[in-house]
Design goal:
alpha+beta; five-stranded antiparallel β-sheet; binds zinc ion
Length: 195
Amino acid sequence: MSLKTILKYGDERLRQKSKEVSKVSKKIRSLAEDMLETMYKNNGVGLAAPQVGELLRMFVIDVSAPDAPINPMVFINPKIIEKSEPVICNEGCLSFPEVFSDVVRYKNVKVKALNINGKPFVTEAKDGELLSRAIQHEFDHLEGILFVDRVVNRFDADAALTQHNLPPVDPDKMIEPGENLSDIPKLDNVTQKEE
Ligand code: ZN
């Protein structure tokens, strides 16, 4: 296993759309292990392949509590088959060290993917739990979408980005929530995590 370098916001590779994994080969399994090692080393809860410069549709997640045994999950060629109930939550990203901002996500999500052995599986995450939010965050990375594209307040986000010497929000990339922001509830008591 080896640690990978995590690309930082501003790197154009983070804006590209990743390609399907054609075969879950030994090379892909080894990349998944390297991504997990890199994620744990950086205290993240998720990491997508494009964040380490590999434009492949795969990501890893571990949302287990810090004092619990690890629970690594690998998602290859994921497809989000259902999502419902928009919610505002505070989020961070390993490609934006120490920057956190409120974004719009969905509380519930259902995803279909291949695991590290190439076997299909379906996972459901509900009630805005960390797994639900992490799946949506990582899936966005595969589309070249970053969490700052979904911020609730662009100016607050810009202030945080500037403070950490990162480029500002790109207004052309911003994604409007499906409904009025004032109608979307905020998820409370969320511990800040980078993904
Ligand atoms: Zn991220």
